[in-house]
Amino acid sequence: MIAFGSSITEPDVYGRCAEPGIRRAAESDSEIRAMAAIGSVFRSYNALLDEFAGREDLEALVLVHQDAEIVDADFCTIVRRALAEPEVGLVGCVGAIGVRSIAWWEASVTCASFINRYDEHGGGDLPSFSWAWSDAPAYARVGEVETLDGFVLVLSPWVVRKIRFDEQLGEFHGYDLDLCLQVREAGRKVITADFRAIHYRQLDMVPDPEPWVDAHVKLADKWDGRMGIGTGAGSWRDRALRAEADTEAALMLAHMNSLESDARVLELQRALAETTESISWRMTAPLRWLHRRTAPKRRRPELTPRSLSKSLTSAETP
Fold first, then answer.
1. Residue 80 phi/psi, 5° resolution?
2. pLDDT, tens digit, for every residue of 283-314?
3. C-beta atoms surrounding 265 within 10 Å
């Protein structure tokens, strides 16, 4: 039996996103546990693991974020195929290698069979991979990875019974990387499988950076020098100083870009003022007014990203 579990803080989000995908993927004997969150995601997920740990018929436990939707109707078949190797402990649809910190997406993402769907700016989808599989680099593949994105996680029965999320790390951030590190350190594999999912999330993925920074520090301290975390050129002090310098450089570049943008706006404002305040502009004002009154009404062309890009390109061409 393949079980599904979700920790819910917003029932309407779960009903709109996770529930339809779970119903689509679940089999007739699947058990679905949609529970109200009992604190952090670490604690809530541990409660789900405790609930299913004693089930002898458990084939896998699928943890699904309330804002994630499983797309594949044959999801359970894909899961069984991925867990056919006894050494596999965790399966996901997004994975990376070369991971050195909680910011795993800065490593080499090897598989990402999902899209981010957002509501801002009229809504839209952001594909997870910008390349086609036929043109992908050598490391882009389905298979063993170092970490997974935890918005959809498939846990083997062994992991459900032996491993727990570290509730000391915080409220939300880093739970997936820490779990993957625990599983790998215990000798089990973490792999990706080519199942598809949709992650409904806002474009501002970390509206409050402080909890993310706190989790980054705690996880780095816990795993420093183990499983590849914190490794790199120089000592930890060298890397810390370099990270501080990189941050300051990024802030400096952002400030410079802001100044350049302000200068460009002022330039355009001066050009507009020179035109509208000139004698010729004032003298021809009656003619422009007459033209607007007598010219036939023309339908304004629809503004699309492509037409806007074309018009801007034409305007910039000397």
1. -60, -40
2. 888 888 888 888 776 665 555 555 555 554 55
3. 10
